[in-house]
Design brief:
alpha+beta, Calcium-transporting ATPase, cytoplasmic transduction domain A, Rossmann fold, 6-stranded antiparallel beta sheet, 25 helices, 22 strands, elongated
Length: 624
């Protein structure tokens, strides 16, 4: 039975019902009669799902719903021979249901993608012997070996070796983080360079990655779907319609008037008011590269008064570039120092090294071949360039090679205060200078924050990066408040804290680590081009072009959509009230009542079409 009802409720069968209903109207207008009214097909195809829903809700769930009123109206119309009126009601309600379902469909594949990233096996070291075991067999205090390119199988502490770990899946940091003995590593992160041994501190279901999966699931359960407005009003709408129809029947003795009241009382335009506007808005957003997954998200976006941004890949491009090259040698210019560093780094696989080499190439500097290249994971690199020994790395690396960079202490402090990563350069055992790198602020980020502020939405920054980088970015973009060094659970907690404070929160992010926060926010927006599939699936809205200026656009579009929905609802109620009055006076019969009733539905659809064609990309245009 349920499969049959699902088949009848589909788009194809609804269209067939509409075609037969149109044929019935054509014969009515032409004043021609057929042995069997074509509208019977619309009654059967579009009406049976409504009858089933009415009976199921009444008996199984003990709820009075709109389908019950529609069923009574259809039955009454058929009883007095007005089959077209019955078919018209059924068809419009079916169309409204289809539009609503299209507007609230949600993609839920993100959790599967997240689970696919989880490590399945680890290298357990027992008595000096290495053995591959399932991650669920790993216990606290086990010693695990992680080779370059492998995923860390458990949370732990490095006990041997050094490397750089890509932990963007957990913290969202754009660059691999150097790890040495005593440093913490997280499950699910990727070892990029050297082999390390770690001592497990949290394994299996207690690991940070498993907690991340549970957070996304929990946040998904915390989100409840919005109810249809007409369904909320059904508890009083149906008794009111029946009571009024009975009063008119007993007062006039005219069954046709009573049935007409039931026909025009059906909330067809009211049911269409929300989904048509939402569908139009979703269609317009798609034109500009914004994918809105649900009508509820679009409605809620207009109420947002706090936008929480991730840093890397959201307000920034997530790509390090050289911002400064400062020579500390009298014999080397800034460009000469940068050229030597780039030549040495030309064989490096580290993102910072690649950025230095790319910068030198862009500036047209000479890149000399490097020889005797050596890399010390977590420290730096060494190479011979034109017969000169060049070292590039951190202070510890230079110190281990008997090079002191004390003269650059103030310069380093200033760079780090601005959130920049630094590479110290030494040439032939002498300190030569500093190369500073920073993430690039996304075009339009500051303008987007300013526009949101003008619309009454404050901005906050939630990032796993260090406080210096976060504060520097906030100063450049105008973000009001900063929360730095956050893990996924902490980002989610901040979102909940903001919501508990009475704010309607929109979270904008791009990484796997943002997925729980995206789910926890009232509205989650993902940067789809650069962002992970998991962040996109966890979000309510996806920006396909990573254009941050689309956030203010979304708020303007949402405001206009909510206003139009309210206008359509009020207009629908007004038209129904006029039609009910005319029905009581006997001016309308079931067929003419159904046609007048269509006026409200037609206006609702036209308004939705106008919404689709408007431009809300700029505040000036949307105001016009």
């Amino acid at each position: 039975m349920e499969k049959a009802i699902e088949f009848l409720s589909g788009v194809r069968m609804t269209v067939i019902g509409g075609l037969f209903l149109a044929a019935s109207l054509a014969f009515i207008v032409a004043d021609k009669a057929l042995p069997v009214d074509p509208a019977w097909v619309a009654v059967a195809v579009c009406g049976l799902p409504l009858v089933y829903a009415a009976i199921f809700n009444l008996i199984e769930q003990r709820r009075i719903t709109v389908p019950l009123l529609v069923t009574i109206a259809m039955a009454s119309a058929v009883y007095i021979g007005e089959v077209f009126a019955a078919g018209e009601i059924a068809f419009l309600m079916a169309v409204g249901q289809i539009l609503e379902e299209k507007s609230v469909e949600r993609a839920r594949r993100g959790i599967k993608n997240l689970i696919s990233l989880a490590p399945t096996r680890g290298r357990l070291i027992t008595g000096g012997v290495e053995k591959s075991v399932p991650v669920m067999e790993i216990k606290e205090s086990d010693i695990l070996r992680v080779l370059p390119g492998e995923t860390v199988p458990a949370d732990g502490v490095v006990v041997s070796g050094a490397s750089s770990i890509d932990q963007s899946v957990i913290t969202g940091e754009s660059l691999p983080v150097d790890k040495a003995v005593g440093d913490e590593v997280f499950c699910g992160t990727i070892n990029r360079f050297g082999a390390i041994d770690i001592k497990a501190t949290r394994a299996g279901r207690d690991s940070s990655f498993e907690k991340l999966i549970r957070l996304v699931r929990q946040a998904e359960r915390d989100k409840s779907p919005t109810q249809r407005i007409a369904a909320k009003w059904a508890s009083w709408l149906i008794p009111a319609a029946l009571l009024l129809a009975l009063i008119v029947y007993f007062a006039t003795g005219d069954m046709s008037r009573a049935v007409t009241i039931l026909v025009v009382f059906c909330p067809c335009s009211l049911v269409l008011a929300t989904p048509t506007s939402i569908m139009a808005a979703i269609g317009q957003a798609a034109k500009y590269g914004v994918i809105v997954k649900s009508g509820a998200a679009l409605e809620t976006m207009g109420k947002v008064d706090c936008v929480a941004f991730d840093k890397t890949g959201t307000l920034t491009l997530g790509k390090p570039v050289v911002s400064d090259a400062v020579s500390a040698s009298a014999s080397l210019s800034d460009s000469d120092m940068l050229a030597l560093a780039a030549s040495a780094e030309s064989l490096s696989e580290h993102p910072l090294g690649k950025a230095v080499a790319a910068c030198a190439a862009e500036r047209g500097l000479k890149i000399s071949p490097a020889a005797d290249f050596k890399m010390v994971p977590g420290r730096g690199i060494s190479a011979l360039v034109d017969g000169r020994r060049v070292l590039c790395g951190n202070e510890r690396f230079l110190s281990e090679n008997s090079v002191e960079a004390g003269s650059a202490k103030e310069t380093l402090q200033n760079f780090r205060k601005d959130g920049k990563a630094v590479i110290l350069v030494a040439v032939d055992g002498e300190f030569a200078g500093v190369v500073a790198l920073s993430d690039v602020i996304r075009d339009g980020a500051a303008e987007a924050v300013m526009q949101l502020s003008q619309m009454g939405a404050k901005s906050v920054l939630l990032t796993g990066d260090n406080a210096g980088a976060a504060e520097f970015l906030a100063e450049k973009t105008g973000v009001g408040k900063v929360f730095a060094g956050l893990l996924p659970a902490e980002k989610m907690s901040e979102i909940k804290r903001l919501r508990d404070g009475g704010l309607t929160v929109c979270m904008v992010g791009d990484g796997v680590n943002d997925a729980p926060a995206l789910k926890s926010a009232n509205v989650g927006v993902a940067m789809a081009s650069m962002g992970s599939d998991i962040a996109v699936e966890a979000s309510d809205i996806a920006l396909m072009g990573d254009d941050i200026s689309k956030i203010p656009y979304l708020k303007r579009l949402s405001n206009a959509t909510v206003w139009l929905i309210k206008f359509n609802i009020i207009l629908s109620i007004f038209i129904n009230a006029v039609a009910i009055t005319l029905s009581i006076l006997g001016v309308l019969n079931p067929v003419t009542g159904a046609l007048v009733h269509n006026v409200g539905s037609l206006i609702v659809v036209i308004n939705a079409g106008l919404l689709y064609d408007r431009n809300y990309l700029t505040a000036k245009k949307s105001a016009a």
